Amino acid sequence: MSSLLLVLVAGVAAGALNAVGGGGTFVALPALVAVGLSPVTANVSSTIALVPGAVASAWVYRRDLTPVGTTPTWALTAISVVGGGIGAAALLTLPASSFDVAVPWLLAFATVILALGRHVSRAVSTALGRPLGMSSTAVLLGQFVLAAYGGYFGGAVGIMMLALWNIGLGLDTAASNPMRVTQLAAIYLSATALFLVASDALSAAHFLAAMLTGAVAGGFTGAHVARRLPAWLLRSIILTTAVSMTVLYFLGS
User: Strands, DSSP E only, in the chain?
Assistant: First the structure.
């Protein structure tokens, strides 16, 4: 019962974090490893368990979506689905050692971009004499890469999305948060479809159910809270989460 309670509480925290600023995987994954699951099974299980919470958050945010530049939302979502599935297939077939080495540096890059992206975007726009803007093709290509990463290992993929949109299009992180949550749900749904068929996640169904229940409650509640937060506070939470995750990953690598 204590193990189930730990997983349930971790699910609530992970769902809420994903709704507010990202980083839910960094709570869910260690909790599942702590109760005895292997790292790969824990990674797969956390992705599956966080899907309903992500969908619940996306539902709360459905009226707050803002476009990512000129890229149609349907095209962005379709790319997220395809990339998430490819990343999930890679997790089940490829060794993770080389990717593990790259993750802390990817997080560090995303954190720096989040912290300085708006200033860099304005500086580049001033130097060019025109607004900085990625083309729809570039946005979709970047989203595919991030979606594949998210299907392979979901940690901080939402934060990396915000970083890409921030530096490439000058989008505000708080205003982009609803779209981040929606694309995260698309990536997780695609990866989960493959994981349920080809992985051993259902061998620990009781832990999966406990985390899933917690994540739904946390995701729904967290999204409602995030919608009421001032933009500056939401940006601060997102940036603080990014910095914390980067430091923890470097310490653990």
Answer: none
133-181 pLDDT, tens digit per residue, is 788 999 999 999 999 988 988 777 887 888 888 888 888 878 888 898 8
CB 19 within 8 A of CB 158: no
The number of folded domains in the chain is 1
Q: Please, are residues 241 and 226 in contact by the beta-carbon 8 Å criterion?
A: no
CB 6 within 8 A of CB 34: yes
Q: How confident is the model at residue 186 (pLDDT cuts 50, 70, 90)?
A: very high
The confidence band for 117, taking pLDDT boundaries of 50, 70 and 90, is low
Buried b (16+ CB within 10 A) or exposed e, 182-203: bbbbbbbbbbbbbbeeebebee
* pTM score above 0.90: no
Residue 122: both structure tokens together: 């304005």
From the list 190, 115, 180, the residue with the least C-alpha distance to 143 is 180
Q: Which domain holds residue 217?
A: 2-252
41, 149 Cβ separation under 8 angstroms = no
Q: Which two tokens stand for residue 88?
A: 């999930």
CB 184 within 8 A of CB 150: yes
